[in-house]
Structures are given as structure tokens and as C-alpha cells.
Inverse folding.
């Protein structure tokens, strides 16, 4: 499985550095004009299966535009393998990563070539990209990747259940969410949960702590760069809200409910799709899944609710997406640049990928293109994506390990193992700062 | 096993012995069943459809025999088998070629420092892999061996602690007279190894070979680390873990089907080579 | 033990002077040393290149700040100090690993002895039964763990059976109190590799000892305690040492189980030893430190701490073994 593969690759990374040779950054990428001699590019991505086939189709579109460049694509490749390849001197020519978390590391270490100069040389207009993507494609002014398709999150709700419970519209705040969830929940005679209004459990499906933090506008760091876990009251507010709803279900009941549904997230027996949950927090891709697997489901989508004190965040969400870049040591950086520029900016490609992958296109041109198949439920995510408040979590040069103490705390908190919330958050702040000192 | 001489027994004793046998058989069967049941689930899951494998049902409905064909179509398992066989075969050769002389020196020649070297050999067994894996990867990177089978096979030609240990224990059982006789005949040590040690200890050598083959067959971590993304050199164990969907979640039925095929050769080998196995373990000297 | 301390003189050789004899002996000794060196050479090279060098290199890394991509920067004892004072998960992961060893090793050994004893009585079909008993140990660890997570799913076969028997049905891999016990059961299921060693050991207990015990009128329990146990004590010792050493490296099963159970995708941090760090074993935390946070120097320091602990445990085990391990034919 991918993670196990990742694990050993970690060991691949561990210790590869000893970079006696190879710390040369590609400071400038030569530009290529016109048809040159035939070139074959190696492109790696994390896509597999159906999505890989669709990605390959986009690559074929590139080949038609630049017939002298052939592209060989390999899928199922995660960041760890990319780093390993860079360090062992056998990188591909271009790379697509699913995970923006490591962009900080890639940019500062030179693992990905800096694109600043070639962007200027080529006159590439960075404003064509949706503003939200700026937050995760560059670091400290060093643009080392371009965005290619993105994800946004929102609220899915079962319209039939809403009607039956007499709820007119989706909740906009978390207190409304709690109220609605309570109305929509059904219990079995033995006390276990039959239908959950909304599952507020970190780790369940797409309930990620970082994403909910965005909805509450809880800051990870204060102005000095220290952890704001204890100083920002929004964290405490978020956890208090969560506890309240968990207590309504009963922690044991909810844990059992989560355990039963966990394995089914990507199957057609997904909890929301079969009506086991009335509302779900999920990404824009879920629309395509429902259409394919449960077309009979009457569902609506809306921006995810926001916390009290964060009303200006309404309509936004945490954005993440794929990034494309040119690894250090790429054999054909000039042609690789042509490729990633084409993929990232060509409207036809982006429209195709949007319709095929059902992810969000990353240029405003593609976003507004009439060729995009736009069911109303899907359009919600377009709007969320364009919202100026939509952004990614803070990117650090050390990756996203800084989130570990908070995540760990969240898991203990929801299980009822933390007696004092504020004290717990204090510890998180301390541990996060300590972790940052590790480099 | 020879027991005490048989005597004519009374009916009561015969009955007791019969009941004893029944009891023992029942225990055997109960335990065997316990060990087998999870495997039965694995086999049953391997015959389910993808969706059904995710559900709680225990019996495939329908039986998707096609899964066993599907796995060959999803991944080039035959090529992976070839790679695994290469790894297993060549590494075994290496282990024996380098291990036999070392084990001989450690067991049949008396010299100062023998104990120390033996302890050093043993100590490498104790070393957690995490300590050496980082810099080892750097070494192989510099040699441009990453992505090939070389890092898996070649280090075995420089000695493998477990095999050396085991061979040493086997060689310790060779009667001294045989060696003395060969020395009297004027043979050099190398000739002694070739003409006396190897033939006499051939069961032991076979056991060591068997262990190495099994280890290479099941090895997951090392191929994963050193083969990376060079799929044409992948071994079976890597392929096994790769039946995933584009979201990284496991395709249970295919993974189980591949697992079944993966362990089949091992089962067959074990069934027929049981005695060699057991003898091999006997002579780790752990019995004293 | 074999030895070839003195080279035999070929019969019929003329008597030599004392000095000549000394010279010959020295030459022979040197030649022998050369031969020993030659025969040892493959291992010596391997030892230096694949053990000594990497150990020293990783020791160096442990004193640096190193992200795996840029060159390492010297950091003194920072990593070690951080480990012991500022890393709560260091202690938690140590606890998890220690739990697995303290509970897992004795349980496995006892179960291995029990199953081996069952298999020593020659019965019809014993070869088949031996294969069945050993079978689970042959399943690759990843597949075996997946299989177990599948079986121990809260709505899966195990809980269905428990439900039929009106017994409580824990959430197993979704409950921090039950996740390690579930892995323990996985370890017992795969008892084959430990069992076979005991099988060999049991089969080598001299029958005369049992006969002598029979004559003295010993019952089965006494025979076990006074004949079997002492005779297999070296095997027990071996299993304990191996069990402790591999226990400190327990990784794959914990990692696979927590990734699957947490259902997390690659980007998120939620796979961290889920549920609630109960499956965060020391090697897993070591891995997370390097992988998620690029703390390669820190990971090297953790590796060395692990090494020292394993060494200490092994030495203690060996030292105390004199008191309870009985070697046939006296001490070696």
C-alpha cells in the first residue's frame, strides 16, 4: 500500500543527503523555441488507475501541441520516492505531487528547481492562477512549482432527510450544524447510532483537524512565529464545539459508529452515500462518486459552516492541490518547463481534467470556461475555490510535521482523555515550539 | 522414534490409549483449525468482488475466480517472480560461497581471536537495521546500484551473519577424526573443506540454503528500499503490496489473491523439506 | 570442538635442529594465519563496509541537523537532549515497544512450547498438521496484518462470533486499549517460526531421560518440569534473546494496522500510531520523524539510542542466563 511504500522510502530519504555532489540548483532553465530534435520526457505522478489514464490523456494533448516531445508517464509515485530519486541522481524530468505540504522543503533545499527566472523570461502571467494557489506553490518568494488542479471542501447534505426533519437550508455556523445534526440523528433501539446527523470525529473520512481549524479561523502561529494553540481562543472554541456534539452521541457510540464505517470511504458503501450520515464534510470529488455510484441520492452541497467569531470565513475552505515541478537533476529542464507550463495554463487541458477528474481547475480562465460541466452541486466548490479567504495551511520549510502535536491532542481530546482543555492546549503550544526547534 | 518394547496390554490399557489418541487428535485438529481459519478468510476474500470484500459477508457471492487472472493483468507478476527467483537464487549462492569458509575457520581451526570474531558476527545480528540503513543507502547511491537488484544480491557475497552462525553450528558436529585423517593425508585446508566438510555437512548446507531462499522470497523491506520505482526489477513482495486504488486504499480481494499465490511455493517447499528445516534449527546449537 | 593446533609432521621426515623446527613452526603459523585471513576475508570486507562504516556514519549524523537533502549541519548533543526532554512521543513509543516485548515475548514462547509439544507426538497425519501450524508464519507480514485488520473489523467475523457467544465486542484496532492485544494475537497466530525451533529442541531431548523419569514414577507434569524444561532451556534462551531483539524493531505490523484503521490518506498526519498513539512503536516514531519532518539527524540519534538499549538488554540476558540455562555436556 502506498503508506507502507512510503515508509520504506522514508528510509530511502534518511541519509541520502550526504550530498557531496548535487547541491547545485538549477538557477536558470534554458528556454526552447520551436521544434528541436526529438526528446523524451519522464514524468512521475501520484495518479493511479482511471485517474492516471486521464492524466495520460492530458499528456497526449501536450504531445500533439509539441510533437517532437514524447512523454512517458509513471504513476503511483509519492513525495518520498521523488526525493529518493533526486538524491540518487535518477530523477524524472518533471513531477506531479499530490501533496503541497512539502513545497517549503522542496523550494528551500533546491530539490525542485526555482522557476522564478524562467517565469520572468517567458513572461508567464502568474495572475492567471487562482489566488488560493499562491499559498502552497511557492515558499518565501521562491516559486518552485506550478499548481495543477486543486481540491476544496464543503458540506454535503441529504436533501430528503433535511425535508423530513423540516430543515430548510444547510447550516452556516457550527452551532446551527449541531442543532441540525441532533434533529437528523436516529438511534437504534439498543442505543447505537443508526443515522448520524454529522460525525465530528478527527480521522473519520475527510474530517481533518487542519481543515476545520480553517473554518474556525484558528491560527497555527502567532505574529512571532510561535504556536498559537493556547493563545488563539478559536482553538478552544472549536474543541468545545466538538465535545458538545460528541457528548450528544455518547463517545462510545460514536467511536463504534466511526469504526464501522471507516473502511468504506472510497467504496460505494460510503456512509453518506448510503444514508448512514445526513451531512458530511467532504471534497469536491465526492460529486462524481455519487453520480457514478448512487445517482438516486438527492444531495446538496454548500460551503462548510464556520465557527462563531469567524463569520468572514464563510464561503471559503482549506484548499489543497497538486503541484508540478522540475526536480533537480532533470535531464531536460527546458522541455520539462514547456510541459508543466502547458499543463498548468492551457485551458483545454484544465477543462478536460476538470471534467474527467472532477477536481478544480487552477486558472481563472478554466474556472470560468463554459465548457466545464457544472452541476449545481459541483459549482459550489468553484465558488469556494475562488473565495479570497480560501487558502492552504501554513507551509514551513520543515514540512507539515508541526501539526503533529495538535493532531495527537485532538485524538486524545475526542476520546475524552483530556481533563483540562486549556492546559492541554498549553502543552500543544509548548510541544509545537519544541518541534520547530528541531529544524 | 523407538519407544519402550511393546508388551501385551489389557483391554483397559488399550482403551485408555485409544481415548488418549482421540484426545490428542482432537487437540491437533482444533489447533490446526485455529491456525487455518484466518487463511480460509484470506482465500475466501480473494474470491470476492471488490465491493463485497469491503462488506461484512463471509462467503463470496458470486465466486470471482477471475481475480486470479486479474492480478496477472494488473501487474506483471511473472516478471516479478523472475526477479524474486534471481534474488533468492543468487543471494543463496553468495551466502554459501562466503559463509562456508568463514564458518569453517570459526569452527574447525583453533586460533586466537576466534571467539572474538564469532561474537562480532553475532553482534551484527543484534544491530537494529535503522542504524545502518541510512548510510548504506548513500553507499549504494554512489555506486549507482539503486534501482537494480545488486544491493540485494551482492552484499551476500560478503558474508551473512545468520548463515555463518548456522553453518558454524553444523560444522561443529563433524567428527574430528575425519578432519584429522584428511590432514594426515596432506590436504590443504581448502581441499579439506571441499572434500570432507561440504559432503559431510550437506544437510546443514541445504538447511542454510533453504533459509536464505525463504528469506529472500519474503523480503519486503530491502527490495522496497533499493528498487524504488524501477518496476521492471520489482520482486513479488513489492507487487503484493501494490494492489491499491488511486486513493491508496487496499483492493482487498486482489491483494489476498496475490498473497495466496505468493505463499503457495513456500508451503510446498516446507511440506517436503520439513526434516531439513527442523534439522537445521536443531543445529543452531541452541540446544547446547 | 575441532582444532588443528599443531601441524602433523609427515612420516619419514628427517629430524631437524631446534632452530630449524622453530623456524618451520613460525612459517607454518604465518601460513595458517594467512589462510585464516583469506577464508575470513569476504566477511571482513562485508563487516567493514556494511556495518562498521554505516554505523560510524549514522553516529555522525546523529550529532547533526540533517534534512536529507541539504548537507548536514553540526548540532552537538542537541538531538539527544531533545529526545529525552522535549519529545513526549519518544517516551510513549518506548512504552509501546516495551509493552510488546514484555507481554509478547513470554506469551509467544509459552505458546510456542505448547504447540511444539502437541506436535511431537507422532500421529497419523502429523506432517500435515505441522504444515498447518507453520503456515501462518509463512504469510508475508503485510498481507497477514491486512488479513487480521480485516478479520478484527468491528463488524467482521471475530466480533460476529463474539456476538453469537454474547461476549463483549471490542473495537479492536479502533480502540487504543485493544489495538496492541489484537497485534499480540497476530503474533501468536504466526507462532510457526518460534514453534519450529522448539519442535527441534524437543525432538532432541534424549529419550533415556524420559525413561529414567518413568522408572522413578514421575507424572507428566514432573517430567515436563525436571526433564523437558532444563533440556530446552538453551532454546528458550535463544528465543528470548531473538524475541527481545526483534521486538525492539517491531514495525511493519504496527504501521500497516494503524494506517488502515485510521483510514487516513497520505497527506494527513492522522496515521500516527492510531488509534491515539497506541500503535506508535519506537521504530514507527523514528520513521515519522524522518519522513514527515525531515529530521534525519534526529532519526539517527533515535536509532543509536535504540541500539544501545538493545545491547544493554542482550548483555543482561546473557549474563543472567548462566543461572538458568543448562547446556548438555557442560559449559561451552
Amino acid at each position: 500500500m502506498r503508506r507502507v511504500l512510503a515508509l520504506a522510502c522514508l528510509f530511502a530519504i534518511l541519509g541520502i543527503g550526504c550530498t557531496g555532489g548535487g547541491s547545485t540548483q538549477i538557477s536558470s532553465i534554458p528556454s526552447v523555441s520551436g521544434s528541436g530534435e526529438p526528446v523524451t520526457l519522464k514524468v512521475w505522478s501520484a495518479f493511479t488507475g482511471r485517474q492516471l489514464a486521464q492524466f495520460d490523456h492530458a499528456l497526449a494533448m501536450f504531445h500533439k501541441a509539441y510533437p517532437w516531445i514524447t512523454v512517458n508517464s509513471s504513476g503511483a509515485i509519492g513525495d518520498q520516492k521523488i526525493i529518493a530519486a533526486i538524491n540518487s541522481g535518477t530523477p524524472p524530468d518533471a513531477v506531479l505531487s499530490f501533496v503541497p505540504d512539502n513545497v517549503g522543503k522542496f523550494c528551500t533545499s533546491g530539490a525542485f528547481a526555482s522557476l522564478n527566472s524562467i517565469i520572468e523570461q517567458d513572461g508567464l502571467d502568474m495572475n492567471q492562477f487562482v489566488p488560493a494557489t499562491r499559498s502552497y506553490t511557492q515558499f518565501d518568494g521562491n516559486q518552485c512549482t506550478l499548481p495543477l488542479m486543486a481540491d476544496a471542501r464543503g458540506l454535503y447534505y441529504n436533501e430528503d432527510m433535511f425535508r423530513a426533519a423540516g430543515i430548510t437550508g444547510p447550516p452556516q455556523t457550527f452551532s446551527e450544524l449541531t442543532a441540525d445534526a441532533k434533529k437528523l440523528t436516529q438511534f437504534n433501539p439498543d442505543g447505537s447510532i443508526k443515522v448520524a446527523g454529522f460525525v465530528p470525529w478527527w480521522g473519520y473520512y475527510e474530517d481533518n483537524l487542519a481543515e476545520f481549524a480553517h473554518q474556525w479561523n484558528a491560527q497555527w502561529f502567532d505574529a512571532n512565529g510561535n504556536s498559537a494553540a493556547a493563545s488563539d481562543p478559536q482553538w478552544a472554541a472549536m474543541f468545545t464545539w466538538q465535545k458538545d456534539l460528541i457528548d450528544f452521541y455518547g463517545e462510545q457510540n460514536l467511536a463504534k459508529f466511526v469504526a464501522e464505517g471507516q473502511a468504506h470511504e472510497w467504496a460505494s458503501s460510503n456512509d453518506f452515500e448510503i444514508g448512514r450520515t445526513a451531512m458530511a464534510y467532504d471534497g469536491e470529488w465526492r460529486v462524481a462518486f455519487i453520480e457514478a455510484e448512487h445517482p438516486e441520492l438527492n444531495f446538496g452541497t454548500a460551503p462548510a459552516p464556520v465557527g462563531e467569531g469567524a463569520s468572514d470565513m464563510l464561503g471559503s475552505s482549506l484548499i489543497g492541490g497538486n503541484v508540478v515541478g522540475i526536480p533537480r537533476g532533470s535531464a531536460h529542464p527546458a522541455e520539462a518547463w514547456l510541459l508543466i507550463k502547458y499543463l498548468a495554463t492551457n485551458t483545454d487541458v484544465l477543462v478536460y481534467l476538470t471534467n474527467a477528474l472532477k477536481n478544480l481547475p487552477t486558472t481563472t480562465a478554466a474556472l470560468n470556461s463554459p465548457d466545464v460541466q457544472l452541476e449545481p452541486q459541483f459549482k459550489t466548490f468553484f465558488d469556494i475555490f475562488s473565495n479570497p479567504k480560501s487558502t492552504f495551511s501554513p507551509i514551513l520549510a520543515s514540512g507539515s510535521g508541526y501539526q503533529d502535536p495538535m493532531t495527537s491532542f485532538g485524538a486524545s481530546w475526542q476520546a475524552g482523555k483530556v481533563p483540562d482543555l486549556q492546559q492541554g492546549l498549553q502543552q500543544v503550544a509548548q510541544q509545537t515550539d519544541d518541534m520547530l526547534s528541531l529544524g | 522414534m523407538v519407544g519402550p518394547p511393546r508388551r501385551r496390554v489389557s483391554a483397559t490399557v488399550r482403551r485408555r490409549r485409544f481415548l488418549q489418541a482421540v484426545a490428542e487428535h482432537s487437540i491437533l485438529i482444533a489447533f490446526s483449525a485455529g491456525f487455518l481459519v484466518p487463511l480460509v478468510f484470506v482465500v475466501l476474500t480473494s474470491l470476492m468482488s471488490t465491493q463485497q470484500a469491503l462488506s461484512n459477508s463471509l462467503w463470496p457471492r458470486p465466486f470471482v475466480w477471475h481475480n486470479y487472472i486479474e492480478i496477472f493483468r494488473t501487474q506483471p507478476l511473472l516478471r516479478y517472480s523472475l526477479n524474486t527467483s534471481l534474488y533468492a537464487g543468487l543471494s543463496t549462492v553468495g551466502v554459501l560461497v562466503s559463509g562456508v569458509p568463514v564458518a569453517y575457520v570459526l569452527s574447525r581451526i583453533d586460533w586466537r581471536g576466534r571467539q572474538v570474531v564469532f561474537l562480532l558476527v553475532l553482534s551484527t545480528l543484534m544491530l537494529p537495521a535503522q542504524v545502518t540503513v541510512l548510510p548504506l543507502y548513500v553507499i549504494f547511491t554512489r555506486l549507482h546500484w539503486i534501482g537494480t537488484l545488486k544491493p540485494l544480491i551482492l552484499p551476500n557475497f560478503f558474508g551473512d551473519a545468520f548463515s555463518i552462525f548456522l553453518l558454524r553450528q553444523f560444522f561443529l558436529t563433524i567428527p574430528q577424526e575425519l578432519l584429522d585423517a584428511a590432514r594426515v593425508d596432506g590436504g590443504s585446508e581448502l581441499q579439506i573443506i571441499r572434500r570432507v566438510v561440504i559432503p559431510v555437512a550437506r544437510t546443514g548446507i541445504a538447511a542454510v540454503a533453504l533459509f536464505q531462499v525463504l528469506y529472500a522470497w519474503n523480503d519486503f523491506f530491502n527490495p522496497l528500499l533499493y528498487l524504488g520505482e524501477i518496476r521492471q526489477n520489482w520482486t513479488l513482495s513489492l507487487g503484493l503490496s501494490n494492489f491499491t486504488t488511486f486513493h491508496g486504499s487496499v483492493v482487498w480481494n486482489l491483494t489476498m489473491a496475490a498473497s495466496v499465490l505468493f505463499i503457495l511455493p513456500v508451503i510446498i517447499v516446507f511440506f517436503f523439506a520439513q526434516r531439513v528445516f527442523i534439522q537445521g534449527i536443531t543445529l543452531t546449537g541452541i540446544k547446547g | 570442538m575441532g582444532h588443528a593446533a599443531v601441524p602433523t609432521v609427515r612420516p619419514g621426515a628427517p629430524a631437524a635442529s631446534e632452530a630449524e623446527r622453530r623456524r618451520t613452526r613460525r612459517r607454518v603459523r604465518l601460513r595458517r594465519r594467512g589462510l585464516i585471513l583469506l577464508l575470513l576475508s569476504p566477511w571482513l570486507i562485508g563487516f567493514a563496509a556494511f556495518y562498521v562504516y554505516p554505523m560510524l556514519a549514522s553516529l555522525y549524523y546523529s550529532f547533526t541537523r540533517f534534512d536529507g537533502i541539504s548537507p548536514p549541519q553540526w548540532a552537538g548533543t542537541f538531538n539527544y537532549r531533545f529526545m529525552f526532554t522535549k519529545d513526549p512521543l519518544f517516551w510513549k513509543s518506548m512504552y509501546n515497544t516495551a509493552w510488546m516485548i514484555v507481554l509478547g515475548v513470554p506469551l509467544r514462547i509459552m505458546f510456542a512450547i505448547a504447540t511444539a509439544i502437541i506436535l511431537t507426538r507422532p500421529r497419523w497425519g502429523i506432517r500435515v498438521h505441522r504444515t498447518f501450524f507453520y503456515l501462518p508464519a509463512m504469510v508475508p507480514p503485510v498481507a497477514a496484518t491486512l488479513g487480521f485488520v480485516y478479520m478484527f473489523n468491528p463488524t467482521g467475523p471475530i466480533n460476529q462470533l463474539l456476538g453469537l457467544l454474547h461476549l463483549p465486542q471490542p473495537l479492536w484496532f479502533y480502540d487504543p486499549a485493544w489495538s496492541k492485544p489484537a497485534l499480540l494475537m497476530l503474533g501468536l497466530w504466526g507462532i510457526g517460526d518460534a514453534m519450529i525451533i522448539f519442535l527441534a529442541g524437543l525432538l532432541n531431548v534424549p529419550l533415556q531421560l524420559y525413561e529414567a523419569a518413568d522408572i522413578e514414577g514421575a507424572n507428566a507434569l514432573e517430567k515436563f518440569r525436571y526433564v523437558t524444561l532444563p533440556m530446552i532451556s538453551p532454546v528458550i534462551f535463544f528465543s528470548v534473546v531473538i524475541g527481545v531483539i526483534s521486538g525492539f524493531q517491531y514495525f511493519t505490523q504496527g504501521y500497516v494496522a494503524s494506517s488502515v484503521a485510521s483510514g487516513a490518506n497520505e497527506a494527513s498526519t492522522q496515521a500516527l500510531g492510531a488509534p491515539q498513539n497506541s500503535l506508535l512503536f519506537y521504530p514507527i516514531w523514528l520513521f515519522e520523524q524522518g519522513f514527515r519532518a525531515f529530521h534525519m539527524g534526529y532519526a539517527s540519534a533515535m536509532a543509536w539510542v535504540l541500539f544501545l538499549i538493545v545491547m544493554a538488554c542482550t548483555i543482561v540476558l546473557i549474563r543472567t542466563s548462566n543461572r538458568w540455562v543448562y547446556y548438555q555436556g557442560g559449559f561451552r
About this structure: Strands of chain C lie at 64-65, 73-74. Chain C has two domains: 18-62, 82-324. Chain C is about 70% helix and 0% strand.
